[in-house]
Specification:
Helix 1 packs across helix 4 and helix 2 crosses helix 3. This protein has 2 domains: 104 residues; 119 residues, hypothetical protein PF0899 fold (2-Layer Sandwich), CATH 3.30.2320. It has a 4-stranded mixed β-sheet. It is of the alpha+beta class. It contains 4 helices and 4 strands, in the order H-H-E-H-E-E-E-H. The protein is 69% helix and 9% strand. It comes from Ananas comosus var. bracteatus (red pineapple). GO terms for molecular function: proton-transporting ATPase activity, rotational mechanism. InterPro entries: ATPase_E_C, ATPase_V1_Esu. Keywords: Ion transport, Transport.
Length: 227
């Protein structure tokens, strides 16, 4: 083999190695580009998921804030409605209380009422001796009907007439001097107690109004505010 043949073989080997190198380089380039595209796609998808998750989180926060705001406004509206209803009920209570102040304006009917309240209190206490408290302005009227009330009680309870002592040291609060008066006042009626003070029967007009109002409050609310 001469030098020319050796040179040709060398040239062929060089071309073969170069071709393989180029093919290998192309494979590496294609593989690298594919890996790059895959990684890029993964990164894009990851960012998309992150954006979607962030959007969903913010959307949930907005919904929660809306629900909280709605609940707050709803509660505030309910409180306003309840307050308005209470104002109406309280105005009725005040109107009824003002009407009670007129009961004592008619001495004849008020005397009959006082007698009935005393008899009722005696029947509840069923004590042989009691202490009676009334308004100072009612003292004479109470004295005028007391004996009759004691007899009526004795007949109903089938007992002897009890001893009823009018408390002349402590009186019930007086009627208000005007309709807007503040402080304690009493529209009328009596309070009876056992001698030891352990049993008390409060039978004032105001106390009876309170009892009736509490008992009838559900019915009043139903009549006024039922849908």
């Amino acid at each position: 083999m001469n030098d020319a043949d050796v040179g040709k073989q060398i040239q062929q080997m060089v071309r073969f190695i170069r071709q393989e190198a180029e093919e290998k380089a192309n494979e590496i380039s294609v593989s690298a580009e594919e890996e790059f595209n895959i990684e890029k796609l993964q990164l894009v998808e990851a960012e998309k998921r992150k954006v979607r998750q962030d959007y969903e989180r913010k959307e949930k926060q907005v919904e929660i804030r809306k629900k909280i705001e709605y609940s707050t406004q709803l509660n505030a509206s309910r409180i306003k409605v309840l307050q308005a209803q209470d104002d109406v009920v309280n105005s009725m209570r005040d109107a009824a209380s003002n009407e009670l102040l007129r009961v004592a304006d008619n001495p004849k009917s008020y005397a009959k009422l006082l007698k009935g309240l005393i008899v009722q209190s005696l029947l509840r206490l069923k004590e042989p001796a009691v202490l009676l408290r009334c308004r100072e302005v009612d003292r004479r009227l109470v004295l005028s009907i007391l004996e009759e009330a004691k007899k009526e009680y004795a007949e109903k309870a089938k007992v002897q007439c009890p001893k009823v002592t009018i408390d002349e040291k402590v009186y019930l609060p007086p009627p208000p001097t005007n309709r807007d008066a503040h402080g304690p006042f009493c529209s009328g009626g009596v309070v009876l107690a056992s001698q030891d003070g352990k049993i008390v029967c409060e039978n004032t007009l105001d106390a009876r109004l309170d009892v009736v109002f509490r008992q009838k409050l559900p019915e009043i609310r139903k009549l006024l505010f039922a849908k």
